[in-house]
Amino acid sequence: MEDLEERLxxxxxxxxxxxxxxxxxxxxxxxxFYQYLNQYAxxxxxxxxxxxxxxxxxxxxxxxxxxxxxxxxxxxxxxALCIGASMNYEETNRGLETGGYCRLQPHxxxxxxxxxAVNTGNYNIQSINEELEAHGLKPLEI
Length: 142
Known about the structure:
α4 (48-55) packs across α6 (75-84). It contains nine helices and no strands. By secondary structure, the protein is an all-alpha fold.
């Protein structure tokens, strides 16, 4: 699918705008992170318990997220849940965007180390936090 931002820049008429909005609705874009996480877990056949265990986030907090009671988890929580669900780089960035946050930033050391962990299949929060701390960076707040 073509980049939505590029398409948005080309909108000029009412008809184009209405068609764009309809296409957006059909593309199953998620309004909230919990919708994205639930859809991802279902598609990958991953249980929420597995995600909780891997993310190391308090289970009650996570259940409040996946049940839609906590619609706006913090950026670190989203990153940890994406890691807990073994999401790749693009899936993690999609989770961040759906949650209302910026993608992993290539000019921020902390985000670079997180991206490298995801890219190399290191889905261990404790290991990632140790790597961050070893480089004088703030660990994921979970």
